[in-house]
Amino acid sequence: MSVILILGSAPNATSSRNWPKALFSNILTINNAWLVRPDWDAAIYAWDFPPENRPHPCKEQELIEEETFVPIQNEYGGFVYSGGTMAFTAGYFALGHYKPKVLAFLGCDMVYDNSKNTHFYGNGSPDPLRDDITLRDLEAKSMRLQILGAQQGCSVVNLSKEPSRLTFPRVELNSVHESSLAKFDEEAVGFALMQEKSVGYYVPSGRYWKEKDRFDIKKIDAIDALWRQAWNSSASR
């Protein structure tokens, strides 16, 4: 079974340092998370990630940059609908590139306590807290990713034990291979996707912030509400 570990930069990411690599088909790190363990397979980062913070891969490792992940995220509707933060970008990239059976997140909870270190390396600038039109409802974006994963036969789960903005089911490390596929309401999902297409907030370059003046917050909020509805109706089955 293909199991992809997506590793973010929350403090609990360090709990994965001694996890057996054999549990995962690939380890995909986000931004600075490549520092957590040396045996990562791919490192994904945004266009503005500082060059001095980027890893120097060995021949078995791969760097995933904008020109690689933007076309894949666009296949899933684009950044306005899927959420312009690297945790979701990594998720959609993994779904499209690896076609896994399980997508397991750690260190991506997007909950920040100002009295503590926000990242495993100290204080950082929490990307999801930006005043961004695509990040108004992190839970809805999380639900969307989980549902679209289920549509292609992938269970999207959370290995974290901490409070989380992710809505993915929590699983234990030793049972990650047994993660069940989420149910989804095909009619509700189809309607949400139809509304996205109708609104037309697709930006081929991925740099949606350059076109923000054409986006209507109320329309994006309404689409987020449709994903919540689709997720809730699926969860009740």
Overall number of structural domains: 1
Largest sheet: 6 strands, parallel
- Total DSSP E strands: 6
Shape, principal axes of CA atoms: globular
Number of helices: 6
Rg measurement, Å: 17 Å
C-alpha termini separation: 26 Å
The order of strands across the largest sheet is 4-3-2-1-5-6
**What portion of the residues fall into strands of 2 or more residues?**
5-15%
Pattern of helices and strands: EEEEHHHEHEHH
Task: Write down the overall mean pLDDT.
Answer: 91
Ranges where pLDDT stays below 50 over 5 or more residues in a row are none
Helix content: 25-40%
Please identify the structural class as seen in this structure: alpha/beta
Detailed description of the structure:
The chain is α/β, with parallel strands linked by helices and 237 residues long. The protein is built from six helices and six strands. It has helices spanning 66-75, 79-82, 86-98, 138-151, 186-199, 217-235, and strands at 3-7, 26-30, 42-44, 62-64, 102-106, 155-158. Helix 1 crosses helix 3 (86-98), helix 3 runs parallel beside helix 4 and helix 4 packs across helix 6 (217-235). The chain starts with a strand and ends with a helix. The mean pLDDT is 91.
